[in-house]
Recover the amino acids of this structure.
């Protein structure tokens, strides 16, 4: 029941709705007491023979009136209570989403998207159940249950009431016990389902690999096992679930039997009329729902408990990257100074970056090259504050990046990541992602600089073409260039291209480079690339290996040293010649 | 209009029947469960009749026949106990059967998807496919649970009660039947109104999920571009629409379901009282019958409520089933083996014979392609994006059906090979190095348990992936997260290389695999590939000089056609592309040295 305490903040928020709803629920319970009473009177009058036509009309009239009142009140309390529950899940979904936007990349590395989705859908649904049906069953089982029992005891016979209520504590105990069982089993079943979901997600994403390696049969086998496991876990839930109703039926039946046996005994003794006995059993019938509600209450509450715990745990995850208490809300600008002694990724023991010290004046271009895994992307991530430096600092305009507000820092940086991700929206919306109110001209200008404008015009709907998961399929190069245009539109002080031209051919790359030079005068650009032609014009080039700088300088100075850079550059020159030669064949 | 509606009903009927056909393999346990349900219901319905007998024969006339009363009491308890235990059995059985049916359906659609052709995946968004396989089948599960459990049970129970009523008083029971069409009418009206609102709610839910899923995937972009507030706003908009639609649903439910059914209960009670009241003016009536009637009435409406409650789920399940069957009936299956022979790839002789191909049936991406790769030879495909290089590979791997021409391996058309044979003998290195959740070893081995740990290590050493794998804390057991996000793209590619080497294929297919590996890592791979190529026919989409110059034949593709063909030296001698390059290189590094090295 502690779940209701945990949800109190919401009940307080919706005080009026809940109070009205609960008040009407109690009124409904009261009115509900009338029909059995009338039936009792009716039976006795038939037995004694005092019934007249007028009385029949009177009784039936009252019944119909009761029916109409009940209908109206029931409609209203439903709207109040269930409507509020819907509001709760709305609130929680927004809160979760808000929280998701604050969590850092590290979190998304650790958690699977399918899992996070499950929390935002299934778990919230279970919590909604608690705030709706949970409240209803709580009020009904207490209010209606007490009222009916009191009526039976006061208007008919307290002795008979006590006798028939004997089996009740067993029901309380059993339903509680089942509730606990359900809690654990339901959790396992939900978990199995979300793992099944993940399995399918991965399978679909990796379909090409699966097909190329002929792994379809094995994938089906694995899926079968997992699906069967989900079934088993659900059957475990069903086993307890199937106990609920029969248990309640059994105990209600015993109560009924006691009522008839002892009630008849009282009738023989003339301490009770047969009409009263009829009323009594009808009241007993009215007790079934509060009892069921009591059983369900545990069921609903246990489910809600499990889900609420998961959601709260998720909401409690602290973002790893935070603003300092007195962080500055000004856009960083000026010289960038890298002073990294060491950087470790969380939970690793080998430093990814070591002793990186260099300066980049405002308006200069930095080129970062090196082997895969040498630390190029890590360096960029540190500047973006996706991770915080373990030992060392980066300053922009003589101010540590940790002294700026995260939003200020990020607004100064246009970022094109390695894995280009586009949203399910039009191309124009994607390009204007960072600046939704951008004009058409601005969007087109960015697209032109990124050398994607002509490609876009070739689509049937041009800039209104929908891309992303549910849109047209773009080539890797097209996606990269849209992603570049998106960053360019920010017109930011610093632009970072993280191997962002890998799927673009050499000629297009050259065009983009040229356009960038013209458009980004006096602005800082950081380019990491495997292709040296992408950074050869840079004011400073650093060559990374195992997190260390092994060579640095300009293209000219590096070409004079007989090092890694020179060897690579010459080799790549040769290769690009072939590509260009191929182009001339057009 | 009515015609359209009619057709809709017919198609819904078809879907429903098709869903029911899934119960066939479970017919025996279903029959048993049904029988048990009948017995449980019968035992339950007889109860009030026993009480009626007791009231009318013993209580009202004040007859104390203790023997008979004891027999009545004992049989009542016995029947009650039977009813309770049988009910437990049937509840569990129906649920169990429902779960296994959904399992079957899930495996069916998953299996079907596994054998779909790539053109299917090209045109179906991944997210919606996942939703078909898990969420839609989950909705169908609700249908089976509600149809099998709720509907069957409650209808049986209602029929049982009506029979009990007829036994007690046929005339009144006959009047009582009036309420059946009224209940059906309400159900129909409810279905009519709720289906529309329900549809909107479903749509909003799927929009909400899509938005959430996409936001989670692109969170780094959202954050890097400071768009958290705007995204929150967009999410809130969908969320709000969902909330409003759900509130509408609550309204329609409150108007037409439980409160309405309770109103009918009161009306039915009024009718029964009037009937007995009026009859009592003419002749004495049996109080026991009145009692039993009211008792039945009390229990008549809960099943009705339960069924109404499940109606919406029912509709949702039908829509879900329609989508699931849509995929099960999809014709775009992957090309499969033709013929009964079991040819084996021994040599690795590849022949393209006048192959023309189009993905969409409109634009030809390959035109009349013919070439031969003799066993052990390396053929390099050169050309820019869209020239048709990837299509050649897609066809060779039988990912798409060939429209015109023929591809032969060892003289046998590829259509005649077993899928298994093709996959075992052709090793593909994909452009996108996809990694699965698990560990490094699993990603190299995939599901092939016959690949030993030593073979895994051997393969990794071969492509020099072992160097970075050995540096990992868990080495080959190092966990791999979703899509291998903790590895760099180069590392991912190295693992995928090892994966290809582990099956020791006869034919090697490289699809731009070297494109995003940095040049130095590629050196290592070039050495490995050289070793691998020995004794293997290789088709490579190549950008790098080293790959190209080692090739026995180079095909230069342009707009789906082969425009130049020959060896490195032949092409140089021809004075075309290679010759030009040679001239350009005169001032720089000596190409001669490169070629001859």
């Amino acid at each position: 029941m502690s779940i209701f305490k945990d949800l109190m903040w919401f009940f307080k928020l919706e005080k009026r709705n809940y109070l009205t709803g609960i008040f009407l629920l109690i009124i409904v319970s009261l009115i509900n007491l009338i029909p059995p009473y009338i039936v009792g009177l009716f039976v006795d009058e038939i037995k004694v023979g005092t019934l007249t036509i007028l009385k029949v009309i009177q009784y039936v009239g009252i019944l119909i009136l009761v029916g109409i009142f009940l209908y109206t009140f029931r409609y209203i309390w439903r709207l109040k209570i269930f409507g509020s529950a819907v509001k709760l899940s709305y609130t929680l979904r927004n809160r979760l989403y808000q929280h998701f936007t604050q969590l850092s990349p590290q979190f998304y590395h650790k958690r699977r998207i399918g899992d996070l989705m499950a929390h935002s859908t299934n778990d919230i649904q279970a919590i909604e159940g608690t705030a709706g049906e949970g409240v209803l069953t709580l009020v009904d089982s207490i209010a209606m249950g007490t009222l009916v029992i009191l009526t039976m005891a006061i208007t008919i016979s307290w002795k008979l009431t006590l006798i028939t209520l004997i089996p009740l504590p067993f029901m309380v105990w059993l339903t509680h016990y089942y509730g606990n069982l359900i809690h654990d089993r339901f959790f396992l079943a939900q978990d199995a389902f979300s793992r099944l979901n993940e399995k399918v997600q991965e399978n679909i994403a990796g379909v090409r690999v699966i097909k190329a390696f002929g792994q379809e049969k094995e994938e089906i086998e694995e899926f079968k096992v997992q699906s069967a496991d989900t079934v088993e876990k659900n059957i475990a839930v069903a086993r307890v679930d199937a106990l609920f109703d029969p248990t309640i039926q059994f105990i209600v039946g015993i109560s009924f039997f006691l009522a008839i046996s002892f009630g008849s005994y009282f009738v023989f003794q003339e301490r009770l009329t047969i009409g009263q006995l009829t009323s009594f059993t009808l009241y007993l019938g009215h007790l079934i729902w509060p009892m069921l509600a009591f059983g369900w209450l545990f069921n609903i509450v246990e489910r809600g408990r499990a889900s609420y715990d998961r959601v709260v745990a998720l909401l409690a995850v602290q973002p790893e990257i935070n603003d300092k208490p007195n962080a500055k809300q000004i856009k960083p600008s000026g010289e960038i100074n890298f002073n990294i002694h060491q950087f470790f990724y969380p939970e690793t023991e080998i430093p990814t970056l070591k002793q990186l010290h260099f300066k980049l004046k405002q308006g200069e271009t930095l080129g970062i090259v090196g082997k895969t895994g040498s630390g190029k992307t890590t360096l960029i991530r540190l500047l973006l504050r996706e991770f915080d430096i373990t030992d060392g600092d980066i300053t922009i305009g003589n101010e540590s990046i940790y002294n700026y507000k995260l939003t200020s820092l990020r607004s100064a940086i246009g970022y094109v990541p390695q894995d280009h991700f586009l949203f399910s929206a039009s191309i124009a919306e994607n390009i204007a992602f960072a600046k939704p109110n951008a004009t058409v001209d601005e969007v087109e200008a960015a697209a032109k600089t990124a050398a994607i404008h002509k490609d876009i015009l070739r689509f049937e709907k041009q800039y209104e073409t929908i891309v992303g998961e549910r849109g047209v399929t773009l080539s890797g190069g097209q996606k990269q260039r849209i992603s570049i245009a998106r960053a360019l539109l920010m017109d930011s002080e610093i632009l970072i291209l993280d191997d962002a031209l890998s799927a673009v051919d050499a000629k297009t790359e050259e065009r983009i480079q040229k356009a960038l030079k013209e458009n980004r005068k006096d602005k800082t650009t950081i380019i990491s690339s495997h292709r040296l032609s992408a950074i050869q014009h840079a004011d400073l080039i650093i060559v990374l290996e195992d997190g260390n700088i092994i060579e640095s300088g300009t293209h000219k100075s590096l070409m004079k040293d007989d090092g890694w850079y020179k060897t690579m550059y010459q080799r790549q020159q040769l290769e690009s010649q072939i590509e260009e030669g191929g182009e001339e064949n057009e | 209009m009515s015609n359209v509606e009619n057709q809709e009903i017919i198609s819904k009927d078809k879907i429903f029947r098709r869903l029911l056909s899934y119960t066939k393999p479970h017919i025996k346990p279903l029959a048993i469960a049904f029988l048990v349900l009948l017995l449980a219901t019968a035992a339950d319905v007889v109860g009030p009749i026993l009480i009626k007998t007791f009231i009318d024969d013993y209580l009202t006339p004040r007859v104390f026949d203790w023997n008979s009363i004891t027999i009545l009491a004992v049989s009542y308890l016995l029947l009650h106990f039977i009813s309770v235990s049988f009910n437990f059995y049937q509840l569990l059985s129906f649920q169990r059967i429902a779960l296994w049916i959904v399992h079957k359906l899930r495996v069916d659609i998953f299996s079907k998807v596994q054998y779909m052709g790539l053109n299917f995946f090209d045109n179906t968004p991944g997210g919606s496919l996942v939703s078909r396989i898990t969420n839609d089948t989950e909705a169908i599960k609700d249908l089976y649970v509600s149809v099998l459990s709720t509907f069957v049970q409650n209808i049986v129970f209602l029929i049982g009660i009506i029979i009990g009523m007829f036994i007690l008083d046929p005339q009144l029971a006959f009047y009582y039947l009036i309420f059946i069409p009224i209940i059906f009418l309400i159900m129909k009206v409810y279905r009519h109104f709720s289906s529309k609102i329900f549809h909107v709610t479903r749509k909003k839910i799927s929009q909400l999920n899509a938005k959430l899923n996409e936001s989670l995937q692109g969170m780094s972009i959202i954050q890097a571009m400071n768009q958290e507030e705007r995204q929150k706003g967009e999410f809130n908009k969908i969320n709000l629409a969902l909330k409003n639609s759900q509130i509408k649903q609550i309204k329609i439910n409150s108007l037409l379901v439980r409160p309405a059914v309770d109103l009918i209960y009161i009306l039915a009670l009024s009718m029964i009282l009037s009937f007995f009241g009026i009859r009592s003016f003419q002749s004495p009536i049996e109080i026991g019958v009145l009692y039993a009637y009211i008792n039945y009435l009390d229990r008549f409406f809960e099943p009705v409520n339960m069924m109404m409650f499940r109606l919406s789920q029912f509709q949702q399940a039908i829509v879900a089933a329609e989508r699931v069957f849509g995929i099960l009936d999809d014709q775009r299956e992957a090309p499969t083996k033709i013929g009964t022979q079991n040819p084996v790839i021994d040599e690795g002789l590849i022949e393209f014979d006048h192959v023309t191909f189009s993905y969409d049936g409109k634009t030809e991406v390959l035109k009349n392609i013919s070439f031969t790769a003799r066993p052990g030879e390396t053929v390099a495909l050169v050309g820019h994006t869209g020239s048709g290089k990837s299509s050649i590979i897609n066809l060779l791997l039988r990912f798409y059906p060939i429209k015109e021409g023929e591809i032969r391996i060892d003289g046998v058309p590829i259509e005649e090979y077993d899928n298994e044979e093709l996959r075992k003998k052709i090793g593909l290195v994909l452009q996108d190095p996809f990694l699965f959740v698990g560990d490094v070893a699993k990603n190299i081995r995939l599901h092939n348990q016959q690949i030993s740990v030593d073979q895994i290590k051997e393969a990794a050493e071969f492509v020099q992936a072992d160097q970075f794998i050995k540096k990992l804390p868990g080495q080959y057991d190092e966990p791999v997260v979703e899509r291998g996000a903790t590895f760099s793209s180069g590392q991912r590619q190295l693992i995928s290389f090892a994966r290809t080497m582990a099956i020791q294929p006869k034919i090697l297919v490289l699809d731009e695999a070297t494109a995003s590996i940095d040049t130095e890592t590629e050196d290592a791979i070039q050495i490995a590939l050289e070793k691998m190529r020995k004794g293997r026919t290789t088709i490579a989409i190549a950008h790098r000089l080293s790959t190209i110059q080692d090739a026995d034949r180079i095909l230069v593709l342009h707009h789906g056609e082969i425009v130049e063909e020959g060896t490195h030296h032949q092409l140089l001698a021809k004075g075309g592309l290679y010759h030009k390059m040679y001239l350009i290189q005169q001032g720089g590094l000596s190409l001669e040295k490169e070629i001859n090295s």
